[in-house]
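Quick one, T. Sequence first:
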Amino acid sequence: MAIDTPATILIIGAGPLGLETALYARYLGYDVIVCEAGDVGSHVQQWEHVEMFSPFSMNASPLGIAAIESHDPDHQFPSNQQCTTGGQWLQQYLIPLSQTDLVRKHIRTNCRVLSVSRTWKQKTDLDTDLDQDSREATREQDPFRIIVDEQGTQHALTADVVIDTSGVLANPNPIGAGGVPAPGEQQAGHGISYSIPSPDDLGQFRGKRVAVVGSGHSATTALLMLTEANALVTWITRQTNEHAISPIEQDPLPLRSQITSQLKELVDRKAIQTLTNIAIDEIKTSDNAEIELGVYQTGTEDELTLEWHSFDHVIGLTGYRPDLAIFRELQIHQCYATEGPIKLAASLLTQSSDDCLKVEQGERELLINPELNFYVLGMKSYGRKSGFLFQTGLQQIVQLFQILGDRETLDVYATFQKPQDG
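Structure tokens:
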């Protein structure tokens, strides 16, 4: 059943996908509330110094560009081929997008969503319990009740549709064995960090022993930066191969291929030390602020022995996980492996490609949850699985509003696509 305008859509998060979703919804005439726990694009600020693999043409929508140009005809965008840093993307596209006329008045910053539920229905209430003569509203007819903490005051909002675009970067995975915090990890304080170091951080690591835990492209970026800053770098992974991340054959993203090759060269000439097959069992902080990792090397025929390695600092880049607490009272079917919504997760798990550009979004029905009119978009829709792309999020937005409008051919982006971009 179509959700007609001007129904109220509440969007959780004013990050890249939240802003794009809000703009799309406002253009179609929906009433929109965007609740952002911090500032606009706060997650992007965490990696504003990092250069993106994908060019600007893959990180902007035709509608977003048109909205910014309408608001400021003289605005200068990056070139389509430029791989911007996170900070450039934020300042040249995301912040200007948030200040456009359609979106600006609908964003509430410092407004953290604490929970999403139905107003009268509870999680255990099933529509199958209603008899044919019942006048009681179904779950779909019952408005959403959203509890927020806005500027330190808690209150309730209501909405017809809720879209969670809050992402996962606020919830880094721990580095302990089995995916749980190792004993002592949460007590290590500033001795362990969970983000790519900033240029300001790098100076303090010169000549220091720094361990990087993780085998993805974020870990690769951190390893290269630390080596260039003359840190004494150790790379710790669960992988059996010291080249834990392999280059993608004929990679269409040159920067991604470049950093993978650079890392291999550094490992081969021992500029980076490696610890493979590692499970981190325990973490201790010494009196002189050293971080001591007690590790097992798995996959060996010998009896496992706990070994201790000391570092001045440890950086955990082992991925992220979604915060599921805010919609605990909704009927959401989640994947047992990734914790993403099950339909999309099942599709993603059948696709084995290491190249995120080759992963297909699939049909729009994959976005539908048992809890009707509640949707998860963006990085959070992938759960713990990596490889989400901004352009995938734009596809999700188109599919979502085809569902809400009950119009299979609805595509606002196609309306604003410039001929030379096609």
